[in-house]
Write a structure and sequence with these properties.
Layout (H helix, E strand, L loop, with lengths): L7 E9 L5 H11 L5 E9 L2 E7 L4 E7 L3 E13 L2 E11 L5 E8 L2 E11 L6 E2 L6 E2 L3
Antiparallel strand pairs: 1-8, 2-5, 2-8, 3-4, 3-7, 5-6, 6-7, 9-10
Bound molecules: zinc ion.
Length: about 140
């Protein structure tokens, strides 16, 4: 396991805007506040969601879209730079009215309502292509 120590930076709480994209808003906020490394948790509700599933054999992301209201029971993610822009790597567990859940790597979702806690780190984390997984990971 590769790792590095980071110093904590600012903390934020935020309310996501209705009808705007869940992940896009986090990235816009990170760009506005010059956050180059951070972690976040969130919860709320969305009007639809698109998850990406990474096929480990094909080494491709395949989308799965759900056009229905979902509760964001739990969302966790991190912020780092990808091609010099903030990228919010976002995972979420979303539930349906009957309590069953959908979960995964959240690409996009139209916010109904959402609340976030964001912890910035005084550091720059930059993603780079990893040959083994063909993902953009943190090189240390
Ligand atoms: Zn992911």
């Amino acid at each position: 396991m590769d790792y590095r120590a980071l110093e904590g930076g600012r903390e934020f709480v935020a309310r996501l805007e209705h009808d705007r994209d869940w992940r896009g808003q986090i990235e816009s906020f990170a760009a506005e506040e010059n956050i180059e490394a951070g972690f976040f948790v969130g919860l709320g509700a969305v009007q639809d969601a698109e998850f990406y599933f990474y096929d480990q054999t094909d080494k491709e992301y395949y989308p799965a879209s759900f056009d229905e209201p979902l509760e964001v029971a739990s969302c966790v993610g991190n912020i780092s730079l990808l091609d010099d822009e903030p990228f919010a790597h976002t995972h979420a567990v979303c539930s349906r009215a009957d309590g069953t859940s959908l979960a995964g790597h959240l690409n996009s979702a139209t916010v109904f309502a959402g609340e976030l806690y964001v912890r910035e780190f005084d550091a720059t984390l930059r993603r780079a292509h990893d040959e083994t997984t063909e993902l953009d990971l943190w090189p240390f």
